[in-house]
Design brief:
The chain has 201 residues and is an alpha+beta fold. It has 6 helices and 8 strands, in the order H-E-E-E-E-H-E-E-H-H-E-E-H-H. The strands form 4 sheets. A two-stranded antiparallel ribbon has the order 1-2.
Length: 201
């Protein structure tokens, strides 16, 4: 049985060094995400070639860091072209990323400046909002609440008027003492008005 070739040695056989750019272009398997990978036997899995070379020449990669290619060549595995970055840095350094685009904006969608006075930050500075937009939204919300209060007060008043009208209807029996008193006063007022209209005989 032949001797197993170490992963590092096998990987070195599958690169092409570009003398112009200095990139170590990987010529073997590329993952769906465009990452150069090499197969391992024990355990049976795959491993990043860029990380394999970096750890061999530079040292271990800290758990909170990622390897990012300074040359932006996805097939490059040259450890000298790698830099250690955090996940946040990696996201912000991607030009096509939405977070990067938002970070570069100088004004909000309504034209208010993202200066120090008008910017409100959340989640340890990871998110920001326009203070003027927040104030406008708060005023609109308060105005909406005021309209709703007026509407429901009017509805409540209408219901009270309907209840009073039903209590004073002559052909409707009223059980409540308060309603009976109101009914009696209502009819006394009607009689007084009739007497005033007809005058003395």
């Amino acid at each position: 049985m032949g001797q197993k070739i170490p992963p590092f040695d096998r990987a070195m056989e599958k690169i092409e060094k570009d003398p112009d750019t200095g990139c170590w272009n990987w010529t073997a398997y590329i993952s769906e995400k465009g990452r150069p990978l090499i197969g391992l036997v024990d355990p049976p899995t795959t491993r990043s070639v860029a990380r394999l070379f970096y750890e061999h020449y530079k040292g271990d990669v800290p758990g909170d860091k990622l390897l990012r290619r300074k040359c932006l060549n996805p097939r490059c595995t040259n450890p000298d072209h790698m830099q250690l970055v955090t996940r946040k840095q990696n996201v912000l350094m991607s030009e096509a990323n939405i977070a990067t685009q938002n970070k570069q904006k100088t004004h909000c969608v309504h034209g208010h400046p993202y200066d120090e006075e008008n910017s409100k930050y959340y989640h340890e500075g990871k998110h920001r909002q326009c203070r003027e937009c927040l104030r406008i939204a708060a005023r609109k919300y308060q105005a909406k609440l005021a309209e709703e209060r007026v509407y429901w007060e009017q509805r409540a008043e209408e219901r009270r008027m309907k209840r009073r009208a039903k209590a004073w209807t002559p052909d409707r029996a009223v059980e409540s003492p308060a309603a009976s008193t109101a009914k009696e006063g209502f009819y006394l007022e009607l009689e007084s008005q009739d007497a005033t209209k007809t005058g003395p005989s």
